[in-house]
Amino acid sequence: MNVFDFTGLFTHLLEQYGYWVLFLALMLELIALPLPGEFIMTYAGLIVYQGQLDWLLSILVAGIGSCIGMTISYGIGYRLGKPFFEKYGSRFHFGPEKLNSVSRWYGRYGNKLLLVAYFIPGVRHLTGLFSGITRLPYRKYVGFAFPGAFLWVSLFISLGRLLGPEWEKYHHTVNRYMLLTGLFTLLAYLTVYLYRKKRETLKTGLVRLLNLGVARYRSLGRVRLIVVSAFAVFVAFFSWLIGVVQDFLAQEFGSFDDITVYIVHQIFASGWTEPAIRISAFGTAVYFAPVIAATGLWIALRGQDRRLELLHLVFMAAGGWALNAALRYSFHRIGPAGAAYGPTFPSDHTMLALAIYGFAAYLLFRHYGNFFFRFAAVSAVVIVCLILGISRVYSNEEYPSDVTAGYAFGGVWLSLNVMLLEAFRMMRGFKKD
Q1: What is the phi/psi pair of residue 93, to 5°?
Q2: How many other C-beta atoms are found inside a 10 Å radius of the C-beta of residue 104?
Q3: Which residues, including other chains, have CB under 8 Å from residue 268's CB and lie 6 or more apart?
Q4: Is the Cβ–Cβ distance between 46 and 167 less than 8 Å?
Q5: Average pLDDT per consecutive 10 residues, the chain (433 residues; last block may be shorter)
Q6: Element housing 154 (H / E)
Q7: Contact of 254 with 400, CB cutoff 8 Å
Q8: How are the residues of the chain apportioned to helix, strand and coil, as percentages rounded to the nearest 5?
Q9: How far is the CA of 75 from the CAs of 79, 124, 132, 145, in angstroms?
Q10: pTM for this structure?
């Protein structure tokens, strides 16, 4: 049976037996059978769109099937895995000591991987088994595996429902983007884990590189840590930026733009036109000017190194505007609204919003130690920039790739300015010493 017949069989079974097929297929896949889980769920979402299945009931049935499959997989690993490795593991350099070491690590950190492992084929098939083999406590396992299962099925069934009549055209591309998102999330988690585990080593090495041998100064440890962290964020955004520019030059944004526009218009009804216009103003001088003025006033009254921070605030805002203008002139991509509105790559709204709001939030984050205050400041920037980008896409002012490029360039500009500010602060500290 070829792939076409295989998928055709599942579509036929789903149309005939609906919930039963959804339940059994996901349960069997998570016991480690190679079934096309994402395909099954998105097609079930299409059937939901057609009115043959209920959306919430489909999610419930698929989620329960996934949870049962994960439980059986865990039980198999728990009963059979550890005795096997204790008896035969030394033959392939994975004896009891190595198993116990991995078990301790997995018990401390691995459970969090269960939230993202579902989105990576091959990985999700092994997480249940490995959790059982390493004797991860079942209560802790359930606390991450079950919410991850419901998140997984909810996203894919909802995507299938959103795609609706365009399911045949877009579902393969959507699945690929979801896989890339899962891989990126996993990579980010592993990076954070390695950073936390090797933080002192990395900090020492980077500080030596940045300070060019002036490591004898101890009073500026916090500033150094900020510089190192800003440098890490800069590298992450710059890597993203390189990928965005490469895709732009290769003209590979077509499918991404089409899918994103379609999904945004499916989620937000026609009544969202007026709110989208108002939200779009968050990316203009109408809001930028008061935020810059308020941040400058706060620096003058409460800031540290007031002159330095005020100069960087002005440089960040004016330089960001000039950089965006230069970039739009260089790439010269005409947006969906037509030539009368000029180039739109990268989005000036999202780039400047992330840079200006992000810099203001950073200063508050740096000078206030309250966790909830810091969390609120960062969350506000993320939410504003996200809904701003959505509003630009919804109103057909900019392409989704323009908005994405704005985030990438804005992140690079923001992290670069934070790094420069703290580097100058550090050098001033050296001079005082």
Answers
A1: 60, 40
A2: 12
A3: 276, 390, 394
A4: yes
A5: 54 80 89 78 86 91 92 85 62 57 61 74 77 82 88 88 75 65 63 59 53 41 65 81 80 79 79 85 92 88 81 91 91 80 89 93 78 82 92 90 93 91 72 47
A6: helix 138-163
A7: no
A8: 85, 0, 15
A9: 6, 15, 6, 14
A10: 0.67
Tokens of 262: 């379609």
DSSP H helices, 198-282, are 199-211, 221-249, 254-267, 273-280
Q: At what angle do helices 254-267 and 138-163 cross, to 10 degrees?
A: 90
Say which amino acid occupies 75.
G
Phi–psi pair at 334, nearest 5 degrees: -80, 130
Q: How far apart are CA 17 and CA 15, in angstroms?
A: 6
Question: In degrees rounded to 5, what are phi and psi of residue 343?
Answer: -65, 155
CB 45 within 8 A of CB 52: no
Residues in the chain: 433
Tokens of 128: 């249940």
Residue type, 241: L
Q: Do the beta carbons of residue 48 and residue 9 sit within 8 Å?
A: no
Q: Which amino acid is at 173?
A: T
3-state secondary structure of 361: helix
Task: For residue 259, give the nearest of 400, 402, 120 by alpha carbon.
Answer: 400
Q: What is the spatial distance between Cα 88 and Cα 432, in angstroms, rounded to a whole number? A: 63
> Where are the extended beta strands (E) located within 33-131?
none
- Smallest CA-to-CA distance from 273 within 400, 388, 390, 394 is with 394
Closest CA to 203 of 191, 213, 192, 195: 195
Cβ atoms of 364 and 377 closer than 8 Å: yes
CA distance 158 to 46: 9
Largest interatomic CA distance in the chain = 78
